[in-house]
């Protein structure tokens, strides 16, 4: 097994020790404490933005592993050492989500003013106990799925992945509404769940491309490059259709969501998110020599992740004001440092070994 890993370069590591990551995390958390004392709502908005970004990487990695379990393919085998540790970080995400659950009333309009929800149905759905139950239930499900995938093999693994993907398809739509869209309760998008799932998958592929040791002659590079290209095209298409339906369908309540993002810095952030998260990586990945290049994929993955981070900020930060952008930057540093530190723990590092051992049985 070790020889196979050495031959194919499949042991992925961030090569970052635990202590430096924790130092960065402590400093960033201290910064968040200062922001919280200045304005708790701005701090909460930044924390939510950071959690959406980093949870997207972890959930996207789990999603990628479930897909690979069903379909197979050298891309999943090659990048599993990068995907498994990130997927195992979901308990950390659940723990870091606690401040959001505590401060719901300063984050969501429906939490501090139930009358802001547009209908009785929304009021029955958007309430604090139900929100907490859905969020904890989803995080628990994703954590259990990650554990199961490291311990089952063969037909059992296929069955677990198939059931998991079905449930995930339902959960991701609910979580997208709860965590993001319910910041503006009057806005509803039936396609947003799919958009969020694609975005998380793209984040996972970009993450794997960045941190994996690579061999430029490895044919799996072209596979993951093609997958990233297809996923980014899917995100772009879904977002374009959503905007088209809103504007040309004469839906003023939904158009208001976009109008609010035409003001201040939000338009610039939206343009940058589109350029870095769609245009640049898509046109770069059209080139076969780029898709097959280890360095090229690493650079495109980094740019795409920045674009995804800006996209998350574009969706969330306008509800909290311009200063929440600074809060989101500090919070993303804190959560990211904790995420990296968590990956150095045996819980995360051993996940791929357990998966390989289960497959060998």
TrEMBL record:
**Record field: transmembrane:** 12-38, 44-67, 79-108, 128-149, 156-181, 187-212, 224-248, 268-287, 299-317, 323-345
Q: Which UniProt keywords apply?
A: Membrane, Transmembrane, Transmembrane helix
Keyword Membrane included in the entry's annotation? yes
Q: What is this protein called?
A: Uncharacterized protein
